[in-house]
Fold this sequence. Notes:
Elements (H helix, E strand, L loop, with lengths): L2 H7 L3 H12 L15 E5 L25 E5 L7 E2 L14 H13 L6 H8 L4 H14 L11 E9 L8 H7 L1 E8 L4 E6 L4 H11 L6 E4 L5 H11 L6 E4 L8 E2 L2 E2 L1 H18 L7 H13 L6 H11 L5 H5 L2
Amino acid sequence: xxxxxxxxxxxxxxxxxxxxxxxxxxxxxxxxxxxxxxxxxxxxxxxxxxxxxxxxxxxxxxxxxxxxxxxxxxxxxxxxxxxxxxxxxxxxxxxxxxxxxxxxxxxxxxxxxxxxxxxxxxxxxxxxxxxxxxxxxxxxxxxxxxxxxxxxxxxxxxxxxxxxxxxxxxxxxxxxxxxxxxxxxxxxxxxxxxxxxxxxxxxxxxxxxxxxxxxxxxxxxxxxxxxxxxxxxxxxxxxxxxxxxxxxxxxxxxxxxxxxxxxxxxxxxxxxxxxxxxxxxxxxxxxxxxxxxxxxxxxxxxxxxxxxxxxxxxxxxxxxxxxxxxxxx
Length: 329
């Protein structure tokens, strides 16, 4: 869904809030997020236009005055909680209009190389950089896929290293500071990107065991010395794991041999690094897994017309992510 379609379908704050309510309670039964009771009453809140302190200066968030036009009260005597459709979700306690949220989701899903917090701040007129950064990370939280199916058929696996140069230090030191990312892509299928601790055979084996099905027919990698012992160890542990392991030697200038290649997974890595270099410029290893989840989520749904709807539904189904929790990880 592009921005024009979002504006047509969700042109007001009330329409956005109604859609969040529909996603949160698809069966139409409103439940208290605190106690789960359905004995609740809906109350309307009249719209009030805020008077700007400086009439000559336009408000930062013009849709703010129309935010949350109704709320619910739980009639459970032990609860009596007042809540809205955004309560208990990733939208909870937001100071931004839902229209801004919906536009941010659309921009993230349509930006092939991602979108930076500074760019989002400029495009949507968000007051501060920290607010835009927090908004993006809450959307990324909804993009984490859990309980994914293992890849099968023909799978390409590769590793890459993320991190900048270290001035005044040698190449060996700089490499030790880089973050290791492993990726796998099924030909004609989905992508997996994971931040791992190192590039040893033990780590490679754990990644392959978690994401590659034993029924996989072929595994294609480069010449990294950790792949053969990792795959050999898996075959010893699981007799049903018997894919054919084929490699290309990049050191010798070999990138394609027949249909043996790792170009697909390397293209996914290249797309991610273009995002790091051209959009984010710098990112923390602490939050690297969130950026990887974003690129994986977008890649796996690149042909899905309902990606926007699914993202909003996920935001409604996940608990709040507090700023203090996000920055203290």
